[in-house]
TrEMBL record:
Transmembrane regions listed in the UniProt entry: none
Name listed for the protein in its UniProt record: Helix-turn-helix domain-containing protein
UniProt keyword terms in alphabetical order: DNA-binding, Transcription, Transcription regulation
One Pfam family this sequence matches: IclR_C
SUPFAM superfamilies named among the record's database cross-references: GAF domain-like, Winged helix' DNA-binding domain
PROSITE patterns for the chain: HTH_ICLR, ICLR_ED
Domain (IclR-ED) ranges: 68-213
Residue ranges constituting the HTH iclR-type domain according to the UniProt record: 6-67
SMART domains per record: HTH_ICLR
Amino acid sequence: MTAETSQTLDRGLRVLKLLADTDHGLTVTELSNKLGVNRTVVYRLLATLEQHALVRRDLGGRARVGLGVLRLGRQVHPLVREAALPALRSLAEDIGATAHLTLVDGADALAVAVVEPTWTDYHVAYRAGFRHPLDRGAAGKAILAARARPVGEPGYTLTHGELEAGASGAAAPLLGVTGVEGSVGVVMLADAVPERVGPRVVDAAREVAEALR
């Protein structure tokens, strides 16, 4: 540190970098140890960063990078969507259902990219910007399930009628994208999700993750 720099700002930026380098967040104690400062300082840093949506804390108290980081660059969301679109388009056309990329925003799941199939007579309308609690719907539940599984272990989640009557969903989490929690999924008008859809969604999530790295 020099006379021209801010120690507090430096620590805040170091917090963001530390959180960006982990997929599962860090506790106050872990951040305190890594920064070499006491817990009170960390609490203050996190509270300030949370006010600007640069950091969020989950129900277990672990701090993670917030979507406010994405908003710092106006072109980031378009870049994320652009990177995900080829895999989403392929998924929507292959399955004949609306495909989406969903990211965590606080306690909500936020759809940031949506592609509808071109060849079906009807499909579920699902719009970018749609949000819902993480514990409802396949997109959010896939993210929650990934937190409970061993790091890097793929899997998918199926739901029915949780967000829209008569609609079923399938989603798989994004894995290995530093600082980003999200999922890729499809939503369809069906009583049950066909067997092949789950593995296909896992493949699409892997493609999107590779595009975002």
